[in-house]
Amino acid sequence: MNRGRRAVLMWTGLAVAVLAGVLSFLSWDRADQVAGVVSAVVGVAALGVGVYGALGPARGPDVQVSGTGRAVSRGSGEANTGFVAPASTTAPDSVSVSDTGDAEADGGSANTGFRQG
Questions:
Q1: Could you report the per-residue pLDDT of 12-57, keeping only the tens digit for each?
Q2: Which H or E element spans position 33?
Q3: 2-6, 18-22, 55-59, 113-117, range with the lowest pLDDT
Q4: How far is residue 12's CA from residue 18's CA, in Å, rounded to a whole number?
Q5: Model-level pTM greater than 0.70?
Q6: pLDDT at 8 over 70
Q7: Which residues are within 8 A (CB) of 111 and not within 5 positions of it... i.e. 6 or more apart?
Q8: Strand pairing partners for 96?
């Protein structure tokens, strides 16, 4: 789970806890009024987030590659110690490649970083 999703879950849980605490100290009539207003605001916000998510740009996954070994290819093969993304998919949102091993190709191709196929 990425950091942004974790933050959303944390703040949502905190908001629920605060709201529950506030409502527990109010009279039934006053708590009913506050809950109605909060429900309307949350409903409109949820609708906006849903539309934003449906219309937003497609986002690829986060990719991390590190500490790979050595790769050797002979002939028309491919040596890869990094990451090759298929051309047909959405490009990753972020790519981190570090401490990759040597890639050696004799007549083919070699990759130790990132390449969109």
A1: 889 989 999 999 999 999 999 999 999 999 999 999 888 887 876 6
A2: helix 28-55
A3: 55-59
A4: 10
A5: no
A6: yes
A7: 78, 79, 80, 81, 82, 83, 84, 103
A8: 64
DSSP annotation of 89 reads: S
Write phi, then psi, for 92 (nearest 5 degrees).
-60, 150
Distance of alpha carbon 105 from its chain centroid, rounded?
34
Distance of CA 47 to the CA centre of its chain: 21
State how far the Cα of 85 lies from the Cα of 98, in Å rounded to an integer. 17
Output DSSP code: residue 117. Answer: -
pLDDT at position 73 is 87
